[in-house]
Amino acid sequence: xxxxxxxxxxxxxxxxxxxxxxxxxxxxxxxxxxxxxxxxxxxxxxxxxxxxxxxxxxxxxxxxxxxxxxxxxxxxxxxxxxxxxxxxxxxxxxxxxxxxxxxxxxxxxxxxxxxxxxxxxxxxxxxxxxxxxxxxxxxxxxxxxxxxxxxxxxxxxxxxxxxxxxxxxxxxxxxxxxxxxxxxxxxxxxxxxxxxxxxxxxxxxxxxxxxxxxxxxxxxxxxxxxxxxxxxxxxxxxxxxxxxxxxxxxxxxxxxxxxxxxxxxxxxxxxxxxxxxxxxxxxxxxxxxxxxxxxxxxxxxxxxxxxxxxxxxxxxxxxxx
Length: 321
Ligand code: GLN
Description:
The chain is α+β, with helices and mostly antiparallel strands and 321 residues long. The chain has helices at residues 7-21, 34-37, 71-83, 85-91, 105-109, 120-129, 136-151, 159-168, 170-181, 189-200, 206-217, 235-245, 251-258, 294-307; strands at residues 2-6, 45-50, 55-59, 65-66, 203-204, 262-264, 269-274, 278-283, 316-320.
């Protein structure tokens, strides 16, 4: 039950996972957001952040890609901080949808709440809950500052991605107004949708996402900046949300085969949280049919397998030098 792994083993696992996964083909860049269709599909990187702040990176881990749906995790944390776990459960929900990230059907099936902050509907609702209410600029500052605190460094919107996404987000507009119909948008509707679109358009690196994942794995204490970004008791709430819906309709298969709660984005990013041990992030643009990066999934799985780690393994894991 007690399991010790060394930092050298972790570094070797990351390097080997990168080498093995690099040649994997399959999948396609997201093309419903035109900007994403044109990103180099060969970009690939893996980063791991340990709880003492040590970060191992290999490949294109300084490349700024669209954070997309991984941002839902970060803003869920902000809303949990601002309103508490009970309010998030009541006003958004914490249920898996078992359906695609942009599902309107999921809203109709469960119109008493938008299921979870980690699908488009719940994430738009989450943006509507961000304080200060009614103040678009103040809300954006809260969102972007929270991203910086979790990732340990600042991040900016990729303007071209934001434009591309704003011009084509018709499905999300329908979601936002449908939610309004069910009294599940708690601020101005176009403002809430715009904040969601803007947060999805933030450029982020795999290294920043690994630090964010490490912060969640470390109970809200950023392992690099040493800032307590959120209360420890919120960490299991956020990891629960990630576990139940992080890969949308493929979440169960993912957790069953990988052993790590993880969240994907159509920019190609994956953020994985191994509580008490490490945060991991991988990035590669080509996606499977559910919108999850093919190569990033393979890479994260390979790291977990090489280290014989899994959230449900029942091991008390210690990392040593
Ligand atoms: N911005 C994208 C959307 O709303 C995010 C989707 C995703 O990454 N799964 O469709």
